[in-house]
Design a protein that fits this description.
Strand content: 5-15%
Number of strands: 10
Shape: elongated
Number of helices: 30
Distance between the termini: 99 Å
Amino acid sequence: MTSSGAGQQPFVGPQPFRREDAARFFGREQDVDELTRHWLANRLTILHGPSGVGKTSLVTAGVLPRLDLSRVDVLPVGEVARPSFVPAAVIPEDSDPHVFALLASWSPYENPIRFAGLTVRSYLRRHHWSPYGRKIMAVLDHAEDVFTAFSRHPDDHTHILDQLGAALGGDLPLHLLVVVSDEYVETLRRHEGLRAHITRGASYKLEPLSHQEALEACRRPLDGIGWAFEPGAAERFVEDLGSTRRTSGSSSAPAVEPLHLQLACSALWEAVRGGQAPIDSGDLVDVDEVLTRFCHRVLREVAHDHLQGDLERLLTLVRPLVDTEAGDGVEPPQRIAAALAARHLLRFGEKRRYEMPVRLVGPFLRAAAHASVHTESAAGDRLAAAGAALHRGWFDLTEKLAHEEIRDPSGPRSRARAESLLGDAAYLHGDLDAALGHYRQATRLFDALRGTDQIVATLLTAVGRILMDQNAYRAAVTELRSAVRRSPEPVIQTELAWALWYLGQESGAVDVLDGALRSDGNTPEALRARGEILSDLEDPRALNDLDRVRPHELASTQAAYALALARQGDVRGAVEAVPPLDVDSDPATLLRAARVMKAAGRDSEAARLALHARQSRGRRPLPPQLTAEADRLMAP
């Protein structure tokens, strides 16, 4: 007789499989083979399917372990959700937050602040270029977040796709796998920068598990720990889970949702693990009861988070989707529907509207009939939920959950993390004074804990950047010097240099950047900053720095490069290098363009641009050492 299963866990439950769970991942062998082949053969591969069908698990536990690391360079799975411990204010205003988050997730063991200002192409060249031309296998998971995540700038939603398209079109051997829900797959395919790289057969749709695949996913993990089902028991269990239809050509067959299978298998294991194998029909749990509990938990969480705990109101909003007598299928408000879809109670269906998976309709109605009116949040999940809400731009929910955590902290660092999240919400909402208060409180709380120097330095950098946005440069220098003492990252030193520059201490700014580049001579942000500052100072070394950070993505760098060319005598090339500008452009960038036009003998245009530089509504005015130059160019 087989021994007890106490202490063992053959099933992962409702969360996605991780790479280390590969030994428990079964039922997707054909999908793994086909997707691996597509990805290796194509520069761009798109994996799509409905929410909860197991796309992430297929990649992390199925495809990635299949790749030969001696032949290809495999990056960790990437996403566009910013790491929760990185303050939003750390990301430069002229950087794409989606790109920053993606690069940070591709290098999870590096300080993410190092990726501020990098592009996808410059990151890959710096971190993953191989002289042997090995393929770079990269994943962008949850690509729908590119379109749904909050952004202060509308073009951020497509800018990251532009950068990915540029990286695919270059000489890097990048093979990109984009994982996206069915709702946004066509939007992704229509993007101009990616469309040219989509070849026939490079898209793969993931379906629910077939009956046989579901049996494999139930049985094989138990085999690994010496357990098994009695003949016929696993078949009955899978039949109870099925009701979804899996399409295959013009026909369809019963199928099983992977999430439902993992919920039921985990519940079954909890029920039998203290006993002895094999598992017979009498041991099987009630699948309907398992799914009813799942529905009830999701409903309570969403009611608590979005409707002040009003469960009855939530049920009123959801019932029309499943009960023809309750309405005509009217969808809940977008935010409620999105929250339910994120927890897999709803999904975006083929009719381009939210619907409930067929297998959950009965359990949902039972959960609704026996729902408790009073709801509470799960304390252990509050910070994660607050971070997810912030990612969507639901600032009121972020604040609610963070304040709950502050009142009832779940751990020694949780209050500090909650204060940092409140700072993020205030910053992204445009309330800089409130953001400063919360970031400073988070700094004090973290500073009282051991091993937090890097987090404190990052928070101090966020404070310094906000003070610079408020033109409080002297105070910014104080905060940033403190940050550098805790963590002398070149990127933090670069922020200190800019604060000194805007304070009028140009030699101090250059000295700081020289020191940063002595510790890491290839830091793009430090090179770019020194090149721009040296260009303003008419120092011939500017051209060398700016040549090292090509291609120039930012208008400020393009204008600095143009000015450096003009100082070297290439006036024609300088005029051609001036980027398109308007009255709202950065004042320093406008002045660089004005100086180029002056060198080209176009005095009236130089005076116009200098006037715009003095009057610009850009977030930072000209530093004092450049104000006199602008006035000189404006003089008749």
